[in-house]
Design a protein that fits this description.
This protein has a two-stranded antiparallel ribbon. Helices cover 68% and strands 9% of the residues. It is mainly alpha-helical and 165 residues long. The longest helix has 29 residues. The C terminus is likely disordered. The radius of gyration is 18 Å and the shape is globular.
Length: 165
């Protein structure tokens, strides 16, 4: 394999990640001016799953429970998520989007998709599907441990290895 090809991939991924974070920050701000992109990611996950236990979210995002707890507190204060008892386990709670949270997330996601359509729509549907498949494959290749640990140090090690500087 050519190191030039890998170097180019590394460079382009770095640019993509920086632009993605900037877009995510802007999208989070559109939902609520006090919202950070990490908390916005939790909203998107809840929108995709319908509901989740905090421990499931911590595992999914590979963050510690205290970090997730702070993000959830912010989302509750902004009235974007609600806690409900877990019918399967009375000791546990489930997080769901509030009606306001759902409406704001849907509006933000729709606006983001419309912007993407404007920017990459001319590529054509086949190209976009191939790109999505390759991106999914890349994400799987970069997955530090096959998923499941709550220790973000694995992700940090992968990031350090692949995206130095």
């Amino acid at each position: 394999m050519s190191t030039d090809a890998v170097a180019r991939l590394e460079q382009e991924l770095g640019v993509l990640l920086r632009r993605s974070r900037a877009l995510s920050r802007a999208t989070a701000h559109a939902v609520h001016p006090e919202l950070n992109f990490e908390a916005y990611s939790i909203l998107v996950r809840l929108d995709d799953t319908g509901r989740a236990r905090p421990s499931e979210l911590a595992r999914y995002f590979r963050i510690g429970k205290p970090t997730l707890s702070r993000q959830v507190q912010l989302l509750e204060q902004l009235e974007l998520v609600e806690r409900t008892p877990d019918p399967a386990d009375a000791r546990a709670v489930l997080l769901t989007l509030s009606a306001t949270g759902r409406a704001k997330v849907h509006a933000a996601r729709q606006a983001r998709r419309e912007e993407l359509i404007e920017r990459v729509g001319p590529w054509g549907e086949d190209t976009l599907r191939r790109f999505a498949t390759l991106t999914e494959r890349l994400n799987a290749s970069l997955d530090a441990d096959g998923g499941g640990t709550t220790d973000s140090s694995d992700d940090a090690a992968v990031a350090e290895r692949f995206f130095k500087g």
